[in-house]
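Methods: example folding runs. The two proteins below were folded one after another, and each record is reproduced exactly as written to the output file, sequence line first and structure-token line second.
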Amino acid sequence: MAGYKEPNFNERTALAARAREEALAKLRAKPPIDPAIAAERAAKQAAKEAAVLEKSRLAKLAIEEAKAAKQAAKDAAAALAAIPPPPELTEAERKAIRDAKYAARKQRTKR
């Protein structure tokens, strides 16, 4: 059985040159791209890029709207915090309100 023979530099360069020529021959054998197909691909790519830009613009707009809504909520909360609480009723005022409710309920049941 013959042993493995290490290829020398000249053999390796010849092998690489032959592989390169075969690859070029394969590329030359491909039919050229039809201009209509190339234009269609370019149009699809342009439409895709436009859609991505529009989506990006809408996302930025949504973020700005969310920030504005958040700021409006903070402003509303601050405005509500600025309103003073209603004054506490005294015991006599609470009794008067309770008596008025009782009298109104009695008036309704007498009918």
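Second run, written to the same file directly after the first:
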Amino acid sequence: MNTRWQQSTLVSILVASLLLVGCGSAPSIKNIDDGAAATTTSEYRIGPGDRLKVFVWEHDDLSLDVPVRPDGKISTPLVEDMVAEGKTPTQLADDMEEVLKDFIRGPVVSVIVQEFKGQFSEQIRVVGQAENPQALSYREGITLLDVMIEVGGLTQFAAGNKAKIVRRTSEGETEIPVRLSDLMKKGVIAQNTAMRPGDVLIIPESFF
């Protein structure tokens, strides 16, 4: 009887401990639900502005670094005007192998993305009073704070608390107010919004 009581007590303690662990949580990122699912994918898709390293096994003369042109295409020896935009590196390598089969026996191609920009539709654009306004490649889990670090923060003329994110949804465009000054200068983590592909962050100028 005593043994059963001890076993029952141990099980109860274990369950209570697990529940306590489950209740603890790290500070959360503000996730604005606009009714549209994020268009993220697990595989990176090549976009204009990316720089690729193309390696053709045992053919150094066909291997080189090449940029993806604004029209989304690349050109390499024996492979001209190949569409790269929207493909994964593996898909592009397979397509190049198909073309090279007409010139060399059993080509083996590897494509490595060395500089990332991503597809235009998935880039995050920052305009206005940031130190370095630019288009950034989207990556899974990127937040507003990450974006602001990459663009160098706010200028001295920025009206940070009047900034907004313009986001495309299934119902059109929506504007999301964000208080960048509170986030950057006061550390108000509640303003650290999760970013989505195609977001445009607009930072207006302050008028004194």
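Comment on the second run: Residues 1-28, 33-41 have pLDDT under 50 and may be disordered.
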